[in-house]
Design brief:
The complex is a heterodimer. Helices cover 79% and strands 0% of the residues of chain A. Chain A has helices at 2-32, 36-41, 53-60, 63-94, 100-109, 115-128, 135-159, 163-171, 176-187, 189-205, 208-213, 222-232, 237-271. In chain A, helix 4 (63-94) crosses helix 10. The longest helix of chain A has 35 residues, at 237-271. Chain A is globular, with a radius of gyration of 23 Å. Chain B has a two-stranded antiparallel ribbon with strand order 1-2. In chain B, strand 1 (54-55) and strand 2 (58-59) form a beta hairpin. Chain B folds into two domains: 2-52, no CATH class; 68-303, MetI-like (MetI-like fold, Orthogonal Bundle), CATH 1.10.3720. The chains are: A mainly alpha, B mainly alpha. At the A-B interface, helix 1, helix 4, helix 5, helix 6 and helix 7 of A face helix 2, helix 3, helix 6, helix 7 and helix 8 of B.
Chain lengths: 274, 306
């Protein structure tokens, strides 16, 4: 009897938590599909007469430009990060050199430096060389911010590659480059994918740096655009929610299909206990 | 980079090149990444400290720090960051509760796990705008509350200085909870099942079981989560505040935080030297948190995870 009651309480608690977690997302998507009148009449209900007019208004705004900017920034900075991080991680994992552990330790600790701390000097630098509102400076900063975690994760993985595989390749006369390309990289698809997902998520969602460094209207990213979008369509909630839904769709799609990569990437740093 | 390229060119040169690189070889691999990191972090941090000690290019010693520390707005901002830290124990307890419930493997637990983790992957700007709309005086939440007769609870969540920071804390908890749940659950699933079985056959009840077994098993990962979330509350809440208060930290500075203070001084009030001093202080605070973490972790010994 009390066991059944306990189970009921547990189920109810989980349902409540899930409800709270999903409710705002439900409101976003349902409001996006409503007309302004529908929304004002009944903000909680299902969109019984779904309309795409909110999406249409959002798409006629600068939305496509922002979307393209975000996509461009995200893919290129993540690609550069993956290349640089895997090269460096291999350097750390393959050779034992003096000061290696110190260098790695310093790199790892950089993970927690808040970006706002770096803002003023980097901005002044950008002004001096005329790189404000250029993608190259922002990509450079993003790459720098992503590298510590990326190198850390990949170094840990590369260390688990059996030594014997590498020695065998060297005996066969392979250079370190071909060992890296033919032995190490093919074994590393899973961690590289995990890393790509975590980093894509981070850049796509980033606001502060994009806000400060991309001031030109045509260079805005989605996240910066959306915060301004809010005040422009202050009274038309369905349009705002349509914009938010469009911005979230790539992530939702990613999350639906690749949940385990998200989870693995975000948990890796922690379960190692560093 | 050129040495790197040399190492890449094939042919008969390859072997000799590799030998000549010798002890420098790992640095060739590390150099490109290191150069970027040195620029983004190294250059910035040196420049930051230099700027915090100058005014318009002239050395002024600790003057900027004195002005910053004495600025009532900065004090208010620091106080708010400290109050946000109160969310950390709440997050830990809630994450523990939810992860333990998920761990029991009730029907549908995978769906619940999926749902609880979802907020964590959403962009903060999106979350901020959604909640900004939900929590307006005549927003979705209040209309719901009034509809069921709870008019007294229909507060002006973001518009009243008394409530704004608590509302913000609530939104942050909503978003960050999933991370703790996933972390704790991953650790729980790695605990050998016999440990739980043994305790159960000893007749341990729900709370006993989890206090005696679960919490000690999770000690390491809980410490990690506490540190990550503390750092978040001290130095990563800019996005929430900026989006939910239109970049003002209002009403009336009631949601002002250190990061916003730095941002406003640097880019709106034209006093980068104050921003630099505040940023240096913030960086120092983060370092203290990390140092504390390593001490706790060493002290915890056993529980420190793998």
């Amino acid at each position: 009897m009390s066991k059944a009651l306990g189970k009921l309480v547990k189920h109810a608690t989980l349902l409540a938590v899930t409800g709270v977690a999903l409710f705002p997302i439900y409101v976003m998507i349902s409001a996006a599909l409503k007309s302004q009148d529908d929304f004002l009449r009944d903000p909680w209900g299902l969109p019984l007469e779904p309309t795409l007019s909110g999406f249409r208004t959002a798409l006629n705004d600068q939305f496509p430009t922002w979307f393209a900017n975000s996509a461009m920034l995200t893919t290129s900075s993540v690609a550069v990060t993956l290349v640089l991080a895997s090269l460096a991680a291999w350097g750390f994992a393959r050779w034992d050199f003096r000061g290696r552990d110190t260098l790695l330790g310093v790199l790892v600790s950089l993970m927690v430096v808040p970006p706002v701390v770096l803002l003023v000097p980097l901005f002044v630098f950008g002004v001096e060389i005329g790189w404000i509102s250029t993608f190259r400076l922002v990509i450079l900063i993003y790459v720098g911010l992503m590298l510590p975690f990326s190198i850390y994760l990949l170094t840990n993985f590369f260390r688990t590659i059996p030594r014997s595989l590498i020695e065998a390749a060297i005996v066969d006369g392979a250079s370190s480059w071909s060992v890296f390309r033919r032995v190490v990289l093919p074994l590393s698809a899973a961690p590289l994918l995990t890393l790509a997902v975590v980093n894509l998520l981070w850049v796509w969602n980033e606001l502060l740096i994009a806000l400060v460094f991309l001031q030109d209207d045509s260079k805005r990213t989605l996240m910066v655009g959306l915060t301004g979008f809010q005040s422009r369509y202050n009274l038309d909630v369905p349009v705002i929610m349509s914009g938010l839904t469009l911005a979230t769709l790539p992530i939702l799609a990613f999350y639906l299909f690749g949940q385990r990569f998200f989870v693995r990437g975000l948990v890796t740093g922690a379960v190692k206990g560093e | 980079m050129t040495a790197d390229e040399a190492a890449l060119t094939g042919g008969s040169l390859r072997r000799r090149r590799r030998l000549r690189l010798g002890r420098a070889e790992p640095f060739v691999w590390i150099a490109p990444a290191l150069a970027v990191v040195l620029f983004v972090f190294g250059y910035s941090m040196v420049e930051l400290v230099r700027r915090s000690l100058e005014y318009k290019g002239k050395w002024t010693g600790l003057d900027n720090f004195r002005i910053t520390v004495e600025d009532p707005v900065f004090q208010v901002a620091l106080g708010h960051n400290a109050r946000l830290l109160l969310a950390v124990p709440v997050l830990v307890l809630l994450s523990l509760l939810v992860s333990v419930l998920l761990f029991e493997g009730l029907r549908g637990w995978r769906f619940h796990r999926w749902a609880v983790f979802l907020p964590y992957v959403l962009p903060i700007p999106v979350v901020g705008v959604i909640f900004g709309q939900l929590l307006q005086l005549n927003g979705v939440l209040n209309r719901g509350l009034r509809a069921v007769g709870l008019d007294a609870l229909a507060l002006d969540w973001l518009g009243q200085p008394r409530w704004a920071l608590w509302t913000l804390t609530g939104v942050i908890v909503w978003k960050e909870l999933g991370f703790g749940v996933i972390l704790f659950l991953a650790r729980l699933l790695a605990v050998p099942a016999e440990i739980f079985e043994a305790a159960r056959t000893d007749g341990a009840r729900f709370f006993q079981l989890h206090r005696r077994i679960t919490v000690p098993q999770l000690a390491g990962v809980i410490a990690f989560y506490v540190v990550v979330e503390s750092i978040t509350m001290v130095s990563w809440v800019f996005n929430y505040v900026y989006v939910m208060t239109n970049g003002q930290g209002g009403p009336a500075d009631s949601t002002q935080v250190t990061e916003l203070y730095i941002y406003q001084n640097a880019f709106q009030f034209g006093s980068p030297e104050i921003a630099a001093a505040a940023a240096t202080i913030l960086f120092g605070a983060t370092l203290v948190l990390i140092a504390l973490f390593f001490r706790v972790q060493r002290g915890a010994g056993l529980g420190a995870g793998e």
